[in-house]
Amino acid sequence: MAGPALSIVGGIIGSFFGPAGTMIGSTLGAMAGNAIDQSMADKPRQAAQMDITGVSSVEGSPIPRVFGKVRVGGMLVWATRFNRTTGSSHAGKGSPAGTSTTDTYTANFAVAICLGPIDAVTRVWFDGKEQNLATLPWRLYGGNTTQTADSLIVAKEGAAWAPAFRGIAYAVFEGLDLTNVGNRIPQVSFEVWSVAAGAETMDNIVSTLCSDAGVDTALIDVTDIAPILVSGYIYPGSQTVREAIAPLAELYGFDGCESGGVVVFKRRGANPVATVALADMAAANGPDADPFTIERQQETDLDALMGVSFVNSDNDHYWQETTYVRRLIDGGKRERRLRLAHATRRHSARAVTINAPYDEITARAQMLLDDEWIGREQLTATLGPDWLGIEPGDPITLDVNGLTRGFLVMRTSYSGAVEIQARSYEPTAYEIIIAPAPTTSTQPSSGTTPTTDPTPVTGSPTDTGGPGIFDGGDGGDPPGGGLGPGGIGGDANGGIEV
Questions:
Q1: pTM reported for the whole predicted model
Q2: Does 77 lie in the same domain as 126?
Q3: Which of 93, 144, 179, 305 has the fewest CB neighbours in a 10 Å radius?
Q4: Rounded Cα–Cα distance for residues 494 and 161 (Å)
Q5: Does the pLDDT value for residue 83 go beyond 50?
Q6: Is there a single domain that holds both residue 353 and residue 236?
Q7: CB-based burial label for 215 (10 Å; 0-12, 13-18, 19+)
């Protein structure tokens, strides 16, 4: 320690002037030593942390397509090196003398949200903590096919190399203070509205998914499913269109079948289109053949418990929950509850990337369970050529000597006669589908709508030097770095590999 050492040295020097000199020299030496000790004990400057592990950035990763109002995480697609600002403060009265030096960091980066176009982003979270949009230094691009490159990216990369990410909704954060997020780029998630009304219509979801897969929309008919509203749905991009539509069809009660060279999507719950009498079947089968057969599943083969896993939109679109509905076979009432520890019979569960209120999904889970029990009977019948017009998805009524029963045609074939396979059917089981559409909410006024030609955020720091953090090395990216021409797997005009 410098204090005691200089105190001794000062005392020795002062002794040449007598006892009083010894005391004064020792005191002065101790003061000088303490000052040196204090300067060496100042708080060290914080080391720079070029940490981007908070967000993902994987080349070739699928980009989600969103419908309705959903919460979705972003993917880092562009960034610069952090900007460091050094500050100092002097110790206050009563504190040891000295100066404290600290470093603060800001970041410029862009985050891809989903495939565009979108209508607005109404909320943003950093590491799960909601941010104030009014004070957030950011700009939003809606993902249309004509959007221009962001002015900051142009300034860093040059106009010839700046990606516009056309067709991708993305956000640019300029001069974001990283103090409250651990001096790193945080995990960013967004509440996205694909349409201003919030809920999306099923016909638009199905037609968009088919179009993305290269299916000519003239080859599909979605007219009948237009009244179905979906609160929110995320297509992750890693599934086939068939895999994406199948759980929607099951949960929302519709079927897709070919008719006249066009795939027609038909909503369940419609009234029968025809009545098949016993005479119609007898004429095709002959007098000695059975006119039809009905097979009935055993109760032990049916589910007593039905669960649906979904994202509960009542909880910030964040909590993954499973709602269960239960059927009691012994004459008891049906029981609904969020979690069931033990099931005494068979049970099934569905997992869908749906954002919806708990009550709605619970009602749809009940519909699934009712549909399974109602559809436990399978009809096979042969009809005459006059029945060539019957198609899969058509509800019919079977009339046997005045006793009627509803069936839904699932398959047809023709080899001199029309053979149909159908399942038992009750239109009222789908009333949740055919009921009048609920009133949808509109986005709050605090939402941020996309812009096509933004200006830099006023007062935000400008970083004009230094390469991007994804440098290509010698012979790699142009000065300024970034993810290279066009971003991830893109071209000079921008865009991300889908």
A1: 0.72
A2: yes
A3: 93
A4: 9
A5: yes
A6: no
A7: middle
